[in-house]
Amino acid sequence: MEETAYIISMAAGAFYLIVACRLLQLSRKTGEHPELLLGIYFATTGQWYLFYNAPYFFGLEGLPRLFEQGVEWVYAVGVIPYLLFIRSAFRPGSTWATALVTLATLCLLAGAFISSIWGEFSNSIDDPGYMIEWIGYTIPCFWMCCEGFASHAAARKRVRMGLCDTIVANRYLLFGWFGVCQTAACAADLLWAHGNSTGAASTALANGLLSGTEIASVAVLWLAFFPPSFYANWIARRAQTHPTPAET
Amino acid sequence: MATTLFDIAAERLEETSEMDRLEARGTLRLAVKEAGLDVQNLTIPQLQAVFEKLMPKELEARGVADAAATCKAVMKDIASAASTADLAASNSPDEIFKRLGGS
Description:
Chain A has about 250 residues and is mainly α. Chain A is built from eight helices and no strands. Chain B has helices at about 5-15, 20-35, 45-55, 55-60, 65-80, 95-100.
Protein backbone atom coordinates (compact mmCIF):
# COMPACT_ATOMS: atom_id res chain seq x y z
CA MET A 1 0.00 0.00 0.00
CA GLU A 2 2.74 2.42 1.03
CA GLU A 3 4.86 1.57 -2.02
CA THR A 4 1.90 2.24 -4.31
CA ALA A 5 1.42 5.61 -2.60
CA TYR A 6 5.08 6.49 -3.25
CA ILE A 7 4.80 5.51 -6.92
CA ILE A 8 1.62 7.56 -7.38
CA SER A 9 3.18 10.59 -5.67
CA MET A 10 6.33 10.36 -7.79
CA ALA A 11 4.27 10.00 -10.97
CA ALA A 12 2.22 13.05 -9.94
CA GLY A 13 5.48 14.91 -9.28
CA ALA A 14 6.75 14.05 -12.77
CA PHE A 15 3.46 15.30 -14.26
CA TYR A 16 3.71 18.56 -12.28
CA LEU A 17 7.20 19.06 -13.72
CA ILE A 18 5.82 18.62 -17.25
CA VAL A 19 3.14 21.23 -16.49
CA ALA A 20 5.84 23.49 -15.03
CA CYS A 21 7.96 23.22 -18.22
CA ARG A 22 4.94 24.10 -20.32
CA LEU A 23 4.07 27.13 -18.15
CA LEU A 24 7.64 28.42 -17.92
CA GLN A 25 7.97 28.10 -21.69
CA LEU A 26 4.69 30.01 -22.05
CA SER A 27 5.87 32.77 -19.70
CA ARG A 28 9.06 33.21 -21.77
CA LYS A 29 6.88 33.64 -24.84
CA THR A 30 4.30 36.00 -23.33
CA GLY A 31 6.46 37.79 -20.74
CA GLU A 32 3.49 37.66 -18.35
CA HIS A 33 3.74 36.96 -14.62
CA PRO A 34 0.75 34.67 -13.91
CA GLU A 35 2.10 31.74 -15.95
CA LEU A 36 5.58 32.30 -14.52
CA LEU A 37 4.26 32.17 -10.94
CA LEU A 38 2.20 29.03 -11.59
CA GLY A 39 5.13 27.45 -13.44
CA ILE A 40 7.48 28.03 -10.49
CA TYR A 41 4.87 26.56 -8.14
CA PHE A 42 4.49 23.37 -10.17
CA ALA A 43 8.28 23.08 -10.58
CA THR A 44 8.88 23.26 -6.83
CA THR A 45 5.91 21.01 -6.03
CA GLY A 46 7.06 18.49 -8.62
CA GLN A 47 10.59 18.37 -7.19
CA TRP A 48 9.14 17.94 -3.69
CA TYR A 49 6.97 14.99 -4.74
CA LEU A 50 9.98 13.35 -6.39
CA PHE A 51 12.69 14.09 -3.83
CA TYR A 52 10.48 13.56 -0.79
CA ASN A 53 9.16 10.16 -1.91
CA ALA A 54 12.09 8.72 -3.88
CA PRO A 55 14.39 8.15 -0.87
CA TYR A 56 11.67 6.13 0.91
CA PHE A 57 10.79 4.17 -2.21
CA PHE A 58 14.42 3.33 -3.04
CA GLY A 59 15.32 2.68 0.61
CA LEU A 60 17.72 5.63 0.88
CA GLU A 61 16.50 6.81 4.25
CA GLY A 62 19.93 7.67 5.63
CA LEU A 63 20.27 10.80 3.52
CA PRO A 64 21.84 13.88 5.15
CA ARG A 65 19.53 16.14 7.13
CA LEU A 66 20.55 19.03 4.96
CA PHE A 67 19.04 17.27 1.93
CA GLU A 68 15.72 16.77 3.72
CA GLN A 69 15.69 20.37 4.92
CA GLY A 70 16.55 21.66 1.46
CA VAL A 71 13.65 19.75 -0.12
CA GLU A 72 11.22 21.03 2.54
CA TRP A 73 12.42 24.62 2.25
CA VAL A 74 12.08 24.60 -1.54
CA TYR A 75 8.51 23.32 -1.10
CA ALA A 76 7.63 25.94 1.55
CA VAL A 77 9.04 28.78 -0.53
CA GLY A 78 7.55 27.30 -3.70
CA VAL A 79 3.97 27.68 -2.43
CA ILE A 80 4.42 31.48 -2.28
CA PRO A 81 4.26 31.90 -6.11
CA TYR A 82 0.99 29.92 -6.04
CA LEU A 83 -0.48 32.40 -3.56
CA LEU A 84 0.73 35.27 -5.74
CA PHE A 85 -0.77 33.61 -8.81
CA ILE A 86 -4.21 33.31 -7.20
CA ARG A 87 -4.05 36.92 -6.07
CA SER A 88 -2.87 38.26 -9.43
CA ALA A 89 -5.39 36.21 -11.42
CA PHE A 90 -8.49 36.69 -9.28
CA ARG A 91 -7.96 39.55 -6.81
CA PRO A 92 -5.42 42.04 -8.16
CA GLY A 93 -5.27 45.11 -5.95
CA SER A 94 -7.45 43.54 -3.25
CA THR A 95 -6.38 44.43 0.29
CA TRP A 96 -7.78 41.29 1.89
CA ALA A 97 -6.11 39.09 -0.73
CA THR A 98 -2.76 40.77 -0.02
CA ALA A 99 -3.32 40.19 3.71
CA LEU A 100 -4.14 36.51 3.08
CA VAL A 101 -1.02 36.06 0.92
CA THR A 102 1.07 37.68 3.65
CA LEU A 103 -0.45 35.51 6.38
CA ALA A 104 0.06 32.28 4.43
CA THR A 105 3.62 33.29 3.47
CA LEU A 106 4.47 33.99 7.10
CA CYS A 107 3.03 30.59 8.10
CA LEU A 108 5.07 28.81 5.42
CA LEU A 109 8.34 30.49 6.32
CA ALA A 110 7.81 30.39 10.08
CA GLY A 111 6.74 26.72 9.91
CA ALA A 112 9.79 25.68 7.91
CA PHE A 113 12.03 27.75 10.17
CA ILE A 114 10.60 26.26 13.37
CA SER A 115 10.88 22.72 11.95
CA SER A 116 14.52 23.42 11.09
CA ILE A 117 15.17 24.60 14.65
CA TRP A 118 13.07 21.72 16.09
CA GLY A 119 15.60 19.38 14.54
CA GLU A 120 13.58 17.56 11.90
CA PHE A 121 10.63 17.87 9.55
CA SER A 122 8.69 15.29 11.50
CA ASN A 123 5.24 15.56 9.84
CA SER A 124 3.66 15.12 13.21
CA ILE A 125 0.94 17.15 14.90
CA ASP A 126 3.30 17.49 17.89
CA ASP A 127 5.67 19.53 15.73
CA PRO A 128 4.48 23.18 15.90
CA GLY A 129 6.50 23.99 12.80
CA TYR A 130 4.66 21.34 10.80
CA MET A 131 1.25 22.59 11.95
CA ILE A 132 2.06 26.22 11.12
CA GLU A 133 3.40 25.24 7.70
CA TRP A 134 0.30 23.09 7.13
CA ILE A 135 -1.89 26.18 7.59
CA GLY A 136 0.34 28.05 5.14
CA TYR A 137 0.01 25.50 2.34
CA THR A 138 -3.65 24.69 2.97
CA ILE A 139 -4.74 28.33 2.54
CA PRO A 140 -3.96 28.55 -1.22
CA CYS A 141 -5.51 25.12 -1.87
CA PHE A 142 -8.83 26.12 -0.31
CA TRP A 143 -8.62 29.61 -1.79
CA MET A 144 -8.15 28.21 -5.30
CA CYS A 145 -11.14 25.95 -4.77
CA CYS A 146 -13.36 28.95 -3.85
CA GLU A 147 -12.07 31.20 -6.64
CA GLY A 148 -12.31 28.43 -9.24
CA PHE A 149 -15.95 27.66 -8.55
CA ALA A 150 -16.97 31.32 -8.15
CA SER A 151 -15.23 32.27 -11.40
CA HIS A 152 -16.82 29.33 -13.18
CA ALA A 153 -20.30 30.48 -12.14
CA ALA A 154 -19.63 34.00 -13.46
CA ALA A 155 -17.89 32.71 -16.61
CA ARG A 156 -20.94 30.61 -17.53
CA LYS A 157 -22.94 33.82 -17.73
CA ARG A 158 -20.25 35.41 -19.91
CA VAL A 159 -20.27 32.36 -22.18
CA ARG A 160 -23.99 32.90 -22.77
CA MET A 161 -23.26 36.55 -23.60
CA GLY A 162 -20.54 35.50 -26.06
CA LEU A 163 -17.87 37.11 -23.86
CA CYS A 164 -15.96 34.02 -22.76
CA ASP A 165 -14.84 30.78 -24.41
CA THR A 166 -16.52 27.65 -23.12
CA ILE A 167 -13.17 25.96 -22.63
CA VAL A 168 -11.94 28.87 -20.51
CA ALA A 169 -15.07 28.73 -18.35
CA ASN A 170 -14.51 25.02 -17.93
CA ARG A 171 -10.87 25.64 -17.01
CA TYR A 172 -12.07 27.66 -13.99
CA LEU A 173 -14.16 24.68 -12.94
CA LEU A 174 -11.19 22.34 -13.33
CA PHE A 175 -9.02 24.63 -11.21
CA GLY A 176 -11.81 24.66 -8.62
CA TRP A 177 -11.71 20.85 -8.58
CA PHE A 178 -7.90 20.97 -8.39
CA GLY A 179 -8.37 23.13 -5.28
CA VAL A 180 -10.78 20.55 -3.84
CA CYS A 181 -8.31 17.71 -4.50
CA GLN A 182 -5.42 19.63 -2.96
CA THR A 183 -7.50 20.62 0.07
CA ALA A 184 -8.43 16.97 0.53
CA ALA A 185 -4.72 16.10 0.22
CA CYS A 186 -3.99 18.64 2.98
CA ALA A 187 -6.64 16.95 5.14
CA ALA A 188 -4.96 13.61 4.42
CA ASP A 189 -1.62 15.15 5.42
CA LEU A 190 -3.13 16.07 8.76
CA LEU A 191 -4.51 12.58 9.19
CA TRP A 192 -1.08 11.19 8.39
CA ALA A 193 0.55 13.55 10.89
CA HIS A 194 -1.98 12.44 13.51
CA GLY A 195 -1.09 8.81 12.81
CA ASN A 196 2.61 9.65 13.07
CA SER A 197 2.27 11.26 16.48
CA THR A 198 -0.22 8.88 18.07
CA GLY A 199 0.74 5.64 16.41
CA ALA A 200 -2.86 5.25 15.24
CA ALA A 201 -3.61 3.24 12.13
CA SER A 202 -4.76 6.38 10.32
CA THR A 203 -1.61 6.50 8.15
CA ALA A 204 -2.93 3.73 5.88
CA LEU A 205 -6.17 5.66 5.37
CA ALA A 206 -4.16 8.86 4.81
CA ASN A 207 -1.97 7.13 2.20
CA GLY A 208 -5.07 5.94 0.35
CA LEU A 209 -6.65 9.38 0.48
CA LEU A 210 -3.42 11.05 -0.65
CA SER A 211 -3.07 8.68 -3.59
CA GLY A 212 -6.69 9.23 -4.62
CA THR A 213 -6.39 13.00 -4.47
CA GLU A 214 -3.14 12.94 -6.44
CA ILE A 215 -4.67 10.85 -9.21
CA ALA A 216 -7.68 13.20 -9.33
CA SER A 217 -5.39 16.28 -9.31
CA VAL A 218 -3.38 14.98 -12.24
CA ALA A 219 -6.60 14.16 -14.13
CA VAL A 220 -8.09 17.65 -13.73
CA LEU A 221 -4.79 19.34 -14.59
CA TRP A 222 -4.45 17.17 -17.68
CA LEU A 223 -7.90 18.32 -18.82
CA ALA A 224 -7.03 21.94 -17.95
CA PHE A 225 -3.61 22.13 -19.59
CA PHE A 226 -3.78 19.47 -22.29
CA PRO A 227 -7.50 19.19 -23.13
CA PRO A 228 -8.01 16.32 -25.60
CA SER A 229 -10.20 17.17 -28.59
CA PHE A 230 -13.06 14.88 -27.49
CA TYR A 231 -13.26 16.75 -24.19
CA ALA A 232 -13.10 20.22 -25.79
CA ASN A 233 -15.81 19.21 -28.28
CA TRP A 234 -18.02 17.87 -25.51
CA ILE A 235 -17.68 21.15 -23.56
CA ALA A 236 -18.50 23.17 -26.70
CA ARG A 237 -21.57 21.00 -27.50
CA ARG A 238 -22.92 21.41 -23.96
CA ALA A 239 -22.62 25.21 -24.15
CA GLN A 240 -24.55 25.40 -27.43
CA THR A 241 -27.68 24.07 -25.80
CA HIS A 242 -27.94 27.13 -23.47
CA PRO A 243 -29.66 30.30 -24.76
CA THR A 244 -28.29 33.77 -24.01
CA PRO A 245 -30.03 35.79 -21.26
CA ALA A 246 -31.20 38.21 -23.97
CA GLU A 247 -33.00 35.38 -25.76
CA THR A 248 -34.80 34.08 -22.69
CA MET B 1 -10.67 57.72 -6.54
CA ALA B 2 -9.98 56.35 -10.03
CA THR B 3 -12.74 56.56 -12.60
CA THR B 4 -13.59 53.20 -14.07
CA LEU B 5 -15.35 52.37 -17.30
CA PHE B 6 -18.37 51.50 -15.17
CA ASP B 7 -18.38 55.02 -13.65
CA ILE B 8 -18.18 56.63 -17.08
CA ALA B 9 -20.97 54.46 -18.48
CA ALA B 10 -23.22 55.04 -15.46
CA GLU B 11 -22.67 58.78 -15.71
CA ARG B 12 -23.56 58.80 -19.42
CA LEU B 13 -26.60 56.64 -18.72
CA GLU B 14 -27.74 59.08 -16.04
CA GLU B 15 -27.44 62.00 -18.49
CA THR B 16 -29.04 60.23 -21.45
CA SER B 17 -31.92 58.46 -19.75
CA GLU B 18 -32.95 61.02 -17.13
CA MET B 19 -32.57 58.40 -14.43
CA ASP B 20 -31.11 59.62 -11.18
CA ARG B 21 -27.53 58.66 -10.24
CA LEU B 22 -28.51 55.84 -7.91
CA GLU B 23 -30.96 54.31 -10.35
CA ALA B 24 -28.54 54.53 -13.29
CA ARG B 25 -25.68 52.94 -11.36
CA GLY B 26 -27.94 50.30 -9.83
CA THR B 27 -29.48 49.32 -13.16
CA LEU B 28 -26.10 49.07 -14.85
CA ARG B 29 -24.62 47.18 -11.92
CA LEU B 30 -27.41 44.59 -12.06
CA ALA B 31 -26.93 44.09 -15.80
CA VAL B 32 -23.15 43.78 -15.42
CA LYS B 33 -23.64 41.21 -12.67
CA GLU B 34 -26.16 39.30 -14.77
CA ALA B 35 -23.54 39.13 -17.52
CA GLY B 36 -21.06 37.56 -15.08
CA LEU B 37 -18.73 40.57 -15.22
CA ASP B 38 -16.83 42.55 -12.62
CA VAL B 39 -17.69 46.27 -12.44
CA GLN B 40 -14.09 47.13 -11.60
CA ASN B 41 -12.53 45.44 -14.61
CA LEU B 42 -14.91 46.06 -17.50
CA THR B 43 -13.64 46.37 -21.04
CA ILE B 44 -15.34 48.19 -23.92
CA PRO B 45 -16.37 44.99 -25.75
CA GLN B 46 -17.87 43.64 -22.53
CA LEU B 47 -19.77 46.85 -21.87
CA GLN B 48 -20.90 46.88 -25.48
CA ALA B 49 -22.36 43.40 -25.07
CA VAL B 50 -24.13 44.47 -21.88
CA PHE B 51 -25.68 47.51 -23.58
CA GLU B 52 -26.66 45.48 -26.65
CA LYS B 53 -28.07 42.39 -25.00
CA LEU B 54 -29.19 43.26 -21.48
CA MET B 55 -29.62 46.96 -20.93
CA PRO B 56 -32.48 47.58 -23.42
CA LYS B 57 -34.68 45.18 -21.44
CA GLU B 58 -33.54 46.62 -18.11
CA LEU B 59 -34.28 50.18 -19.23
CA GLU B 60 -37.66 49.23 -20.68
CA ALA B 61 -38.57 47.61 -17.38
CA ARG B 62 -37.79 50.91 -15.65
CA GLY B 63 -39.94 52.93 -18.04
CA VAL B 64 -37.15 54.57 -20.02
CA ALA B 65 -38.53 55.77 -23.37
CA ASP B 66 -36.70 54.43 -26.45
CA ALA B 67 -34.34 52.21 -24.50
CA ALA B 68 -32.48 50.98 -27.60
CA ALA B 69 -31.62 54.52 -28.69
CA THR B 70 -30.48 55.37 -25.16
CA CYS B 71 -28.15 52.36 -25.13
CA LYS B 72 -26.69 53.31 -28.51
CA ALA B 73 -26.10 56.89 -27.34
CA VAL B 74 -24.34 55.75 -24.18
CA MET B 75 -22.09 53.36 -26.09
CA LYS B 76 -21.16 56.05 -28.60
CA ASP B 77 -20.18 58.38 -25.75
CA ILE B 78 -18.05 55.94 -23.82
CA ALA B 79 -16.20 54.40 -26.76
CA SER B 80 -13.99 57.46 -27.03
CA ALA B 81 -13.82 58.21 -23.32
CA ALA B 82 -12.20 55.05 -22.02
CA SER B 83 -9.09 54.19 -23.99
CA THR B 84 -7.25 52.92 -20.89
CA ALA B 85 -9.79 50.29 -19.89
CA ASP B 86 -8.62 47.73 -22.44
CA LEU B 87 -5.03 47.90 -21.24
CA ALA B 88 -5.89 45.69 -18.29
CA ALA B 89 -7.47 43.06 -20.54
CA SER B 90 -4.25 41.09 -21.12
CA ASN B 91 -4.27 40.10 -17.46
CA SER B 92 -7.99 39.67 -16.93
CA PRO B 93 -8.77 36.24 -15.45
CA ASP B 94 -10.26 35.12 -18.79
CA GLU B 95 -7.11 36.06 -20.69
CA ILE B 96 -4.88 34.37 -18.12
CA PHE B 97 -6.88 31.14 -18.15
CA LYS B 98 -7.08 31.21 -21.92
CA ARG B 99 -3.28 31.41 -22.14
CA LEU B 100 -2.82 28.63 -19.58
CA GLY B 101 -4.44 26.12 -21.88
CA GLY B 102 -2.32 27.28 -24.78
CA SER B 103 -5.47 28.44 -26.60
